[in-house]
Amino acid sequence: RKEVEQDPGPFNVPEGATVAFNCTYSNSASQSFFWYRQDCRKEPKLLMSVYSSGNEDGRFTAQLNRASQYISLLIRDSKLSDSATYLCAATYNQGGKLIFGQGTELSVKP
Amino acid sequence: DGGITQSPKYLFRKEGQNVTLSCEQNLNHDAMYWYRQDPGQGLRLIYYSQIVNDFQKGDIAEGYSVSREKKESFPLTVTSAQKNPTAFYLCASRPTDSNQPQHFGDGTRLSIL
């Protein structure tokens, strides 16, 4: 089993749709969680950190469920510019490595 | 501007040749990382370093080597022992505090001639 797993998609949605991504992690000792966005042939860029109480940034909402060991990302009112690959990541120890999921591809169509 | 600089952006390697990818950061981050990404795949950890003069193997270290002589620099050498080096290589850094995210350089694309 991979340490961090995501549905690779692709998710094809119309503009204005709400789309949700889930990401599961295998190590219950994981401490911190993040969502990154990666455009084609570019480096990943931090989208948002995921806090225990859940957090929102505009159209984006991130949630953490420690009991079930998954994190989620909800995108409301999808824009064409949201088309990208979304990567989740989890850390395992203090200052240590960050493990990434394989990414979920999102394509928003007009 | 503060950030992570990777060079070169594109690199070509001949069979049997070692090549070194540069990664420099001026963010005063303690930890630095090297990842490899193949087309349509996620990021796989090659090596990481949490402090100067110390580094650890990641999941796919075979055929690669690193050094961490300065806090700002974490070069990656792709040796001739790496039989399938064609990939997108990403360097990242972050403070030792594990609650902080990693930030990435803009990557180096390595291809075999």
Description:
- The complex is a heterodimer of chains A (110) and B (113).
- The radius of gyration of chain A is 13 Å and the shape is globular.
- In chain A, strands 2, 4, 5, 9, 10 and 11 form a six-stranded mixed β-sheet that branches. Chain A has a five-stranded antiparallel β-sheet with strand order 1-3-8-7-6, with no helix packed on it.
- Chain A contains no helices and eleven strands.
- In chain A, 0% of the residues lie in helices and 53% in strands.
- The mean pLDDT of chain A is 91.
- Chain B has strands at residues 4-7, 10-13, 19-25, 31-37, 43-51, 54-57, 64-66, 76-78, 87-94, 103-104, 108-112.
- With 113 residues, chain B is mostly beta strands.
- Chain B starts with a strand and ends with a strand.
- The mean pLDDT of chain B is 92.
- The radius of gyration of chain B is 13 Å and the shape is globular.
- Classes of the chains: A mainly beta (110), B mainly beta (113).
- At the A-B interface, strand 5, strand 9 and strand 10 of A face strand 4, strand 5, strand 9 and strand 10 of B.
Beta strands of chain B, count: 11
First-last Cα distance of chain A: 37 Å
- Treating each run of at least 4 consecutive H or I residues as one helix, how many helices of chain A? 0
- How would you classify the helix and strand content of chain A by structural class? mainly beta
| Termini gap of chain B | 35 Å
Please estimate the helix content of chain B: under 10%
The chain pair forming the largest interface, with residue counts per chain, is: A-B, 25 and 29 residues
Question: Which runs of chain A of at least 5 residues are low in confidence (pLDDT < 50)?
Answer: none
List SSEs of chain B in N-to-C order. EEEEEEEEEEE
The H/E string of chain A reads EEEEEEEEEEE
Helix content of chain A: under 10%
**Total strand count of chain A, please?**
11
Strand-residue proportion of chain B: over 45%
What is the number of helices of chain B?
0
Q: What percentage of amino acids of chain A are in beta strands?
A: over 45%
The chain-level structural class of chain B is: mainly beta
Structural shape of chain B: globular
